[in-house]
Amino acid sequence: METVLKTIGLTKSYGKQKAVDGVSIEVRKGDIYGFVGKNGAGKTTFIRLVLGLARADSGSVELFPGEEPMLARRRTGSLVESPALYTNMTARENLEMCCTIIGADKSQADDILELTGLSGTGRKKAGNFSLGMKQRLGIGMALVGDPELLILDEPINGLDPTGIAEIRELLLRLRNERGKTIFISSHILGELEKISTRYGIISRGRLAEELTAEELKKRCGLTTILKTDDPAGAAEIIRRVLGSDKVEARKNGIVAVSAEIKNIGELTNALYGGGITVTEINTSDSDAENYFIRKMEEG
Q: What is the maximum alpha-carbon separation in the chain?
């Protein structure tokens, strides 16, 4: 699969604080890449580095690897933080102004208005739009010039459920009907889970994990949680008994087992024989949100 965006060891500090710390990711053509992290984790700084709006201390960014940098930028559209709208202009006028600025054909405004659900806004000024409408117009302005890659920074932040659903449907249309590759940052985990094909989890400026949607589903199945006095030793015994590496020693004496346990008695006997005390056993059906939260806390 063709690589559209790749970063290698991307690092940016402000004073003694590393806002982005050695982040390496890969976004492939056709991805909806969900960049997940808490507020302040480094998502916006990372996006600004990718777009050339800030200079990295070290590391590299490759947009459309092999493409001349200026041409690669033209193949990329973006919405960083809040949309930069002309509030005294209509949606059409905003789009046409964008076309003028980048030298694009103004005739594409009609298609973008229809695609973003703003074709019925008429003479209404953008300053009077709802937040959801403003976000859709911001995405529409990022679509001027028909870019192949869209980079969107928290486009659903602050929206009500209706606004979130509208943005979600728009992004799916852009990928499925228009062939766009989308990089979207957010801290709203449940929404990213509904649309993303790949994820990067960022915590305190560092990449905690990168995985596909399929890998996420496998990791969020039925999980058995054991509390012991020696999680590392318990994990080693459990791996041997089950013949599986789907065993993880965590903090606070916790061992998580995502492999099937056919005989829990056999397992606890093996742990007891190894000198390990089990104080608690629980089985839970994990979900993506809990998985993301744990990874962000561990990072």
A: 77
pLDDT greater than 90 at residue 251: no
Higher pLDDT, 185 or 189: 185
Tell me, what's the pLDDT at 286? 61
**Alpha helices per DSSP H over 81-230:** 91-102, 108-115, 131-142, 161-176, 189-195, 213-219
Confidence at 196, pLDDT banded by 50, 70, 90: very high
- The CA distance from 10 to 160, in Å, is 34
What does the alpha-carbon distance between residue 195 and residue 288 come to, in Å, rounded to a whole number?
13
Tokens (6 digits) for 6: 């790749």
Percent of the chain with pLDDT over 70: 98
| Residue in the block written with tokens 């039925």 | 222
Q: Which residues contact 136 (CB under 8 A, 6 or more apart)?
A: 116, 117, 118, 166, 167, 170
Question: What domains can be seen in the chain, in order of their start residue?
Answer: 3-216 (3.40.50.300), 220-298 (3.30.70)
Burial code (b: 16+ CB inside 10 Å, e: under 16) for 148-185 equals bbbbbbbbbbebeeebbebbbebbeebbeeeebbbbbb
Beta bridge partners of 27: 5
**100/90 Cα distance (integer angstroms):** 15
Q: Which two tokens stand for residue 106?
A: 């103004």
